[in-house]
Amino acid sequence: MAAGMVLVGTAMAEGGMGAVLQGEGLLKADVLAVFAHPDDEMTLAPVVADLALRGGKRVDHVYVTRGEGGGNMVGRHAGRALGVLREAELRRCLDRLGVRRCWFLEREDFAYTESVSVTMEKWGHEGTLEALVRLVRTLRPEVMCTMNPAPTPGQHGNHQAAGWLAVEAFDAAADPGRFPGQVEKEGLRPWRPRKLYFGGTGPFMAVVSATRELPDGRVPARVAAEALSEHRSQAFGNLGAAPWFLRPQQLQLVKSVVPFMAEETDLFRGLPVEGDVPARVPAPFRAAEAGPVKIRFLPRRSVSRYEEWVEEQGIVSAATTFHPDVPVVAGEATPVPLEVVDPPGSPKGRLKLSVPPGWTVTPGELEVGVAARPVWFHILQVTAPASGGDAMLTAAGDVGGKGVKAEVRLHAVPRLVLPRVAAPGMGTEADSGAWGVMPWAVIPHTNTWQGTVTEPSDVSAAFRAGHDGENLWVEVRVVDDVVVNNIAPDDIRGHWRSDSVEVCVDPEGGGEHTLGAFKAGVFPFDMTGKVRAARDADARPGPIEETAPGMAVASARTRDGYLVRMKIPWGLMGVDLGKARRVGLNVLVYDGDKREAAPGENHNKSRLAWAPRPGVQGRPEDWGVVVVSP
Question: Which pTM was predicted?
């Protein structure tokens, strides 16, 4: 009898005919997708719908946060209350996609940042990885999918971190030496998923149709669009008819226990694979053969950290579509380091440095094979034209009969000299005195970093700035053909929802993230006509009355738009003029033209900046530079 009960129990656990699932059988997943926030499943939604509703796969999702740090386009919920709303929207979405369950790692969605390092610091890298490994070992997925962790401009640092954690969990879950308490005390076993995919392109591609018919006659593309429309707080309510979901869905295979292929159409190709912990197969990828001397331009720290990490994880092939760049200051010489690996005995040769017309690089040539040490750095001086732009910097030559080459994309950030002036006052009716001697910087309608602007009258701007030794003074004049003020007096947050101006100051002048910076968004008019402001996505967010003592703002309507004036104490921004005479600065303009926008509604359609690049509001490395006059 006891043996019979064991046999019956085993059949039930495996889901036999008429069985009640229990234990491991109840938990077993075919696919586990790892994301940072609710709505991140957008990048994989058609694939998920195809797997779950056509392929009958058991799909589970993991979300590191509940998205409580984002905006709200449909109401007043914010913070933890917004997290409750977003979870409710998410569960409705996933139900329509056919996702079986979703799990949360209960980490904080704290602010928009493009830094994976500050994200891991806030979340706790090891503790969050342990929580994810527990789910991998518990659910035992065959396939994992996640977000591409490359630090591409515009890629949220939380998204990068979610991908980073999923990559590490793929191997950590298979290692009994990682988090052994889960094995010794929780009854779990090591488990290695069979495949891991990123969304996007790469050398080993899976291309999945989004238009194969489902049993009910619909196609995954349409199911995905309609499901994602449940994320109304994130302005996804109109996605139901979006045509771009119809295109073939692309994923890249980055870790696997089955051989890699250049292209496949089935994420389950080669599966199942027997055994709990099969060996991982290295990707058949080799970098171009290098000569005796190796050279490379050193990127920003966030990029070099990523490059080191893909080497450690054995997924160098996944980085082939990522192209790093280096910011330089327009109109002045900027140091750009070139690393040379030059072992003793290397043949001599010369490298020629080149940039496009209008740019200069000094020196124009370098000799290699003569170093007294195997690794050395040469600091090149690159000068971008005052008008800015992008350029490719190349080092190339012949060393020992072999070609040596390195290149990096440069992009110029703007520069402004900040004069010292007498305190000009905050009155907006006058344009004389100290305001009149401050230099102007233009933000043309073409300086978009999100959305599209077709002409200057839609939205464009200029700003001028100076300092009096104690305060930074900034005036922004915005040309805007439709000025909307739909923000209630007790709803001063999320300035990107409506017409607004944001000023960003980085004391480091190139910091990796905004928690050491000062960022304040200004609504020129709330619904009562009063100017209001709040700090955002820095270390102390909230209305300036609570978070920015000494800051003052003023505004006024103009013939073709509006103007905003600000006084911000240097000390409030963490700037010590006794030590720093160069700081990072950016001025951003947000524009929405919906005259009938509901109170609090997010109607933002385009964004401009003095230093424009995707995601620049969360990446001080790409802000402009101001030189502070003594």
Answer: 0.92
